[in-house]
Amino acid sequence: MTPQALQYLASQPWALETKTLAVMKDIAAREWQITEAVAKQFGERSGPNSTKRDGVTLIGVNGVISRYASLFHAACGGASVETLAKEFNQALSDPDTNAIILNIDSPGGQVNGINELGEMIHAARGTKPIVAYVGGAGCSAAYWLATAADEIVLDNTASVGSIGVVATYVKQKHDDKDVFEMVSSQSPKKRLEPDSQDGKATYQAELDQLADIFIDRVARNLSVSRDDVLAKFCQGGTAIGQTAIDKGMAHRLGSLENLITELQKRKTTKNMSEHFSINVAGEANTTEIAATLKQQFPEAVSALIAESVDSEPSALSAAAEIAQACIEADVSSMAAKLLNSSTTKAEAFQQIEDAKAIKNACAAAGIEASFDKIMADRNDLGKLIGTAIHEAQASSEQDTTSHITSSGGGVKIDTDEIYKARQQGQ
């Protein structure tokens, strides 16, 4: 079993803390059989990595990350990219999930597959809130995934970073056996020895290329420059809590429970906007809708009215401007009525414009002297129109004396005769 385990370990590049990689080497170097006893010793996953709490789905990213379930995944209780991707997509498409938390406590893992999962998470930004919470370690490959989320929240003791790629190369020895391995002449680099000059240069270039991708993704995900990542993000080391935040490696401190509560509150606000509706029977007009809003949401309507009034300056705050506008419009008598706390500046200027239009109309109709009488009814459209018609017709009558009679020392106007004459065009 040992040769196969060592071969697996040596054949993969790892974005992983060095001390964890050393432990994995020790595990692989022993004569371990992956049996039920081993699984029990390290613990088994009895279900998926994710749980849901009132609209917030938590996806656990714990232990060593590998692309598929493997020897080390089974023995060390790690997570696989395959499973994480499946659960992330399920949470993303779940209508009852309003926010996603990547609950991370991992030293990192296998490079293979991490970029794909990170790109999947990054592409989902804006669909639902996605927050990475690091309560313990969020290192190397795990930090790569964390940066892909909308935000990184840390416990005060959590460590993040370890940006880089490492690889272990094992040169196998076969005791008491002569082993001959031949490589096709067209493929001189197929079996480069890591301790040779060409081998070391080739393997180093591969690791550097993977690390460049890692660094570029972190820079993009956190909206910082590549130079900042190289200079400030610990150069392969880690930073803890507030120090990591000060360096720009994470966004804020917090606890998992508070983060869950915060995202649940965001969900409640979102649901109110999604499901907000008013109950109006049939095809309602604007007036009916306004009445329904007042009935169903009186506090909200009052708040909107108050906000609207508060946001508009009052006529009193622009007294000089309003008085000058009244003089220019030749409606000086209006100024005293407009300058009060209940009239806004905008309303006052609108009334002045309306009065100017009415005055011009009266002048055009030859009833300019009737302006004050007509303006007295400006708040009642029906009366205003009636008064304007009456004044216009009265001014056009040449003689109304035939409709005026004297009786007992008094004077009486026969209004019936006046209107009859108007109807006949007299």
Automatic annotation (TrEMBL):
Signal peptide (from-to): none
Region entry Disordered, spans: 392-426
A Pfam family hit: Peptidase_S49
Residue stretches of biased makeup (Polar residues): 393-406
Domain Peptidase S49: 126-268
InterPro entries for the chain: ClpP/crotonase-like_dom_sf (IPR029045), Peptidase_S49 (IPR002142), Protein_C (IPR033855)
PANTHER family on file: PEPTIDASE S49, PROTEASE SOHB-RELATED
Family: Belongs to the peptidase S49 family.
Protein name: S49 family peptidase
